[in-house]
Design a protein that fits this description.
Layout: H1 38-52, H2 56-73, H3 76-92, H4 96-113, H5 116-132, H6 136-152, H7 156-172, H8 176-193, H9 196-212, H10 216-231, H11 237-252, H12 258-273
Helix pairs in contact: 1-2, 2-3, 3-4, 3-5, 4-5, 5-6, 5-7, 6-7, 7-8, 7-9, 8-9, 9-10, 9-11, 10-11, 11-12
């Protein structure tokens, strides 16, 4: 999730952004299991397609349908994945209370499955959502738990996502030292996971933090690195969101040069064409 100004944003860019990250888990597996429902599988695919287009309300509807169908089929693993995706869509819609309710349904399922990666993902999603509602202490507790579980499970992407949220939380509370440390560890794990979108998200957040500290040179470096990654990502709502975030930050650089302002305009144009 990308951090914007001093208020938590809902999706990675643009933190996650102008508007996170970013789903908290990799896209749910669509491989059919013996108990899978064709309706559920179709709904999962439709939900991911809608999310990529920024149609969050449609994505939420499809994932709610998928979750119910998987539950009826007794397919707990895929039900949990659908609930995580549903919570992400609800957060994108600004429905944090609904997202919390969804995650409270997911939490006992993850505990019952005993899958540490999914337990870490649910804890991270709860932490992110609690942060968005202003429950900072509880948010930090869940995010730290997510990182710990994910590290033990050798799940670098999940740990990187939660560390990025911890960085956002620390930055919002003015704890630059903790924010830098969280972003540094998040970036290392995101690179280990080879997740280009997440790498760019963390770099943009690090650039924003550098700007808050009046460190223009570091901010420019992070933005340039993020821009190179974002340019090679496939077109999606998330890519457009990242381009907008980069353009916005370039435009807000102290004493932005003419080339920086021109590049910011080009970022906005590129986002608009997606």
């Amino acid at each position: 999730m990308l951090l914007r100004s001093t208020r938590p944003s809902l999706r990675p860019l643009l933190t996650i952004g102008l508007a996170s990250l970013l789903a908290l888990m990799p896209c749910a597996s669509l491989s059919a299991s013996p108990d899978s429902s064709p309706i559920a599988e179709q709904a999962m695919t439709a939900g991911m397609d809608a999310m990529q287009r920024g149609q969050f309300d449609r994505a939420a509807w499809h994932w709610q349908t998928a979750s119910a169908a998987y539950a009826q089929a007794g397919d707990t693993i895929h039900q949990l994945d659908a609930l995580l995706q549903l919570a992400d869509a609800q957060q994108a819609l600004g429905q944090s209370r609904n997202a919390l309710a969804t995650l409270h349904v997911a939490q006992p399922l993850a505990e019952r499955l005993g899958d540490p990666t999914r337990r870490a993902a649910v804890a991270g999603a709860l932490g992110k959502t609690l942060w968005l509602t202003g429950a900072f202490d509880n948010a930090r507790r869940y995010l730290n738990s997510s990182v710990s579980i994910a590290r033990q499970a050798n799940a670098p992407r999940t740990a990187a996502v939660s560390l990025n949220h911890l960085g956002n939380l620390a930055a919002q509370q003015g704890d630059s030292h903790a924010a830098h440390a969280a972003y540094r560890d998040s970036l290392k794990l995101a690179q280990q996971a080879k997740d280009r979108t997440l790498i760019a998200t963390v770099q943009i957040n690090a650039a924003r933090l550098a700007m808050q500290e009046q460190d223009r040179r570091t901010a420019e470096t992070w933005l340039a690195e993020a821009a190179r990654l974002v340019q090679i990502l496939p077109n999606s709502h998330e890519k457009a969101f990242h381009l907008l975030a980069i353009g916005q930050l370039r435009r807000e650089l102290p004493d932005a040069s003419a080339p920086q302002r021109t590049q910011a305009f080009q970022d906005f144009v590129a986002a608009a064409t997606i």
